[in-house]
């Protein structure tokens, strides 16, 4: 089957659970919107719709522009698609079979570290689906973002019975900009005189993005330069501080905690906490070396101390699990950042250009992927 320029009709699945669902509780919906914006730049693409796979109503309460990113139900979309990208909501075997009769290609777009989620579910009693696991065997392609390939590629390939290929990771500042409009300086970093407010915003749902090493980095810096640190704020940690005796025991060994310079808070959205309560962000990841959170922080000009090697040219990078290296980078941020904050902001935005939806290299690669997909017979 061949397609003329601007003829492909593409759908990207989402799974809505609330009519006014927040964009900040996870990155999946942002991912769908960013991918939609990216594909709109491809020469072969005529239209891109977000396709909701749940029964939640689609209303104007959604946190994105329905004119720019039209959102429809599966029933509304199913007869008007050439490609469906399953990203944030799964279709069933009957929906799959119908699409195949219509000549529609089906892509599994993998943007989560699924192997790690499943390991944790099995080992630690975190139910995901029980015995009723549906694994679609009729994907025409598996696309995965680079940061999940090292841990989950073989998991994807064995269960889905298709080879998986790495695709460009894409991001857009539109949502962090939109959420930050109401804040002073549009939420961008400005020097804050005196001791600095350190922030850790890991989700703390698993070992992939956990707050302990960032707290250790803050502790090491506090031991050397207590006068430079006003407070350490650890969000998404209130439950740990109340329910985990082990977490409390470890934290109570830290000077920054024992001297009442640390607080363990609940959940906040990123733009608000950055704008109103933050001077420096400290982060740590395992097997997740690209993350929208890092990009949001750096786009807004905040110093980010992190170990994400796939974007090591952003922020203040330390290697691996090296807390001492992280401490050195944090002290560098504490003592020098305000002297060059404007140049830093400009540099971060320049670096992030390679992830934007209109980056020519990104457009070319997605156009190549679509072309290769269309050359294959439908599975």
TrEMBL record:
<dbReference type="Pfam" id="PF10933">
    <property type="entry name" value="DUF2827"/>
</dbReference>
<protein>
    <recommendedName>
        <fullName>DUF2827 domain-containing protein</fullName>
    </recommendedName>
</protein>
<dbReference type="InterPro" id="IPR021234">
    <property type="entry name" value="DUF2827"/>
</dbReference>
């Amino acid at each position: 089957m061949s397609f003329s320029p601007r003829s492909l009709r593409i759908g990207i699945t989402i799974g809505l659970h609330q009519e006014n669902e927040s964009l900040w509780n996870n990155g999946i919906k942002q991912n769908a919107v960013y991918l939609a914006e990216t594909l709109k730049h491809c020469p072969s693409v005529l239209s891109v719709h977000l396709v909701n796979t749940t029964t939640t109503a689609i209303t104007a309460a959604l946190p994105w522009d329905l004119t720019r990113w039209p959102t429809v139900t599966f029933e509304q979309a199913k007869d008007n698609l050439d490609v469906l990208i399953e990203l944030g909501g799964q279709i069933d075997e009957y929906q799959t079979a119908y699409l195949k009769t219509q000549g529609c290609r089906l892509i599994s777009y993998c943007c989560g570290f699924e192997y790690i989620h499943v390991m944790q579910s099995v080992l630690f009693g975190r139910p995901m689906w029980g015995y009723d696991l549906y694994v679609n065997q009729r994907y025409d392609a598996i696309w995965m973002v680079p940061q999940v390939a090292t841990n989950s590629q073989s998991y994807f390939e064995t269960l889905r019975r298709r080879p998986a290929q790495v695709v460009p990771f894409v991001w857009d500042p539109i949502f962090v900009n939109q959420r930050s409009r109401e804040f002073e300086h549009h939420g961008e970093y400005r020097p804050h005189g005196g001791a600095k407010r350190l922030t850790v915003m890991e989700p703390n749902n698993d070992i992939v993005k956990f707050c302990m090493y960032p707290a250790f980095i803050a502790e090491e810096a506090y031991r050397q330069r207590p006068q430079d640190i006003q407070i350490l704020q650890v969000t998404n940690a209130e439950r740990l501080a109340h329910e985990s005796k082990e977490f409390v025991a470890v934290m109570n060994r830290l000077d920054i905690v024992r001297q009442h310079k640390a607080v363990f808070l609940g959940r906040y959205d990123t733009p608000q906490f950055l704008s109103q309560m933050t001077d420096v962000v400290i982060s740590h990841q395992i097997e997740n070396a690209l993350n929208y959170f890092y990009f949001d922080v750096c786009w807004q000009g905040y110093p980010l101390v992190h170990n994400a090697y796939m974007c090591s040219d952003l922020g203040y990078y330390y290697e691996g699990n090296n807390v001492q290296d992280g401490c050195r980078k944090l002290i560098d941020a504490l003592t020098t950042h305000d002297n060059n904050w404007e140049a830093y902001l400009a540099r971060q935005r320049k670096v992030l250009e390679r992830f934007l939806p209109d980056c020519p290299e990104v457009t070319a690669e997605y156009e190549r992927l679509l072309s290769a997909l269309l050359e294959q017979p439908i599975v």
